[in-house]
Amino acid sequence: MVKDRIFxxxxxxxxxxxxxxxxxxxxxxxxxxxxxxIFSIVDLHSLTSSYDDTSKLQENIQEMALDWLSAxxxxxxxxIFIQSHVKEHAExxxxxxxxxxxxxxxxxxxxxxxxxxxxxQGKDINTYGFLGYPVLMAADIMLYKATAVPxxxxxxxxxxxxxxxxxxxxxxxxxxxxxxPHAVFSKSxxxxxxxxxxxxxxYGNTIPFGAGPKEMQDRINMMITDPKRxxxxxxxxxxxxxxFAFHKAFxxxxxANIERLCRAGEIGCVQCKKCLGEKMNSLxxxxxxxxxxxxxxxxxxxxVLDYGAxxxxxxxxxxxxxxKKAMNIY
Length: 330
What we know:
This protein is mainly alpha-helical. It folds into 2 domains: 5-190 and 298-326, Rossmann fold (3-Layer(aba) Sandwich), CATH 3.40.50; 211-286, Orthogonal Bundle (Tyrosyl-Transfer RNA Synthetase), CATH 1.10.240.10. The chain contains 15 helices and 5 strands. The longest helix is centred in the C-terminal third of the chain and has 29 residues, at 298-326. It catalyses: tRNA(Trp) + L-tryptophan + ATP = L-tryptophyl-tRNA(Trp) + AMP + diphosphate + H(+).
């Protein structure tokens, strides 16, 4: 039985955090056993919103590769590479952009939201590249004739646009070259930031994925708890406590008991945070050990990315030949 081929990527836009891990990477590690997976560090995508400062781009790329490998992605099972190292991504994006209606791009739900959000932060992203982000994303998927894409519920509109672009290309050029990729929805746990808002690098409320035991506990100690609880013996409300939200994600076996103790005023916030830190550090210990080991092997990280780029290039070159032939560009 032929496995579905997955393509997915992440932007190297800053330090990887636990929300990124729980939202995507943890699922990728599981998917690698059942799918033919192609995972890309999409550095070209990062330029759509961070084109004005690329000073840390190479550092971010290396850190992301380190995070992926330490989390358990196998470079033999998966193709792992840097997007810009396979030039066909940019070439196919250009070709697809020639026939993509402007109205399709303007109706993507996240377009105006991000335009407003980042604009309010003083960032000018009213650019051709930002508007064309979905075209580049479609090119990433279509270049490898991917049949499946792991997405969260909020990303389904982007995938549907890719499916529309597949249908448009196949119809325009009288071909069945591209399959319509289907969504593989992840059942990931959404983690709040330590201040209760969405976990985001822009808010400074994250827990870094590579945090060691001390940094982990320090970040947990900063978490907001029930503001009405003053004394240890006061009865707490776990429903408004960020620490409890993390217990539900990382400490399922003890969460019912912790809720009971909190509501009864039999466990203090300091003790509860200490318990959470010990549990999270224990669960992530193997990942942290691998990460520390890999940090001392920068040559190995480069080998993995070069090897992945070579494998991705072979597929991209063959498929690009077919794509250009269908368009009578040869």
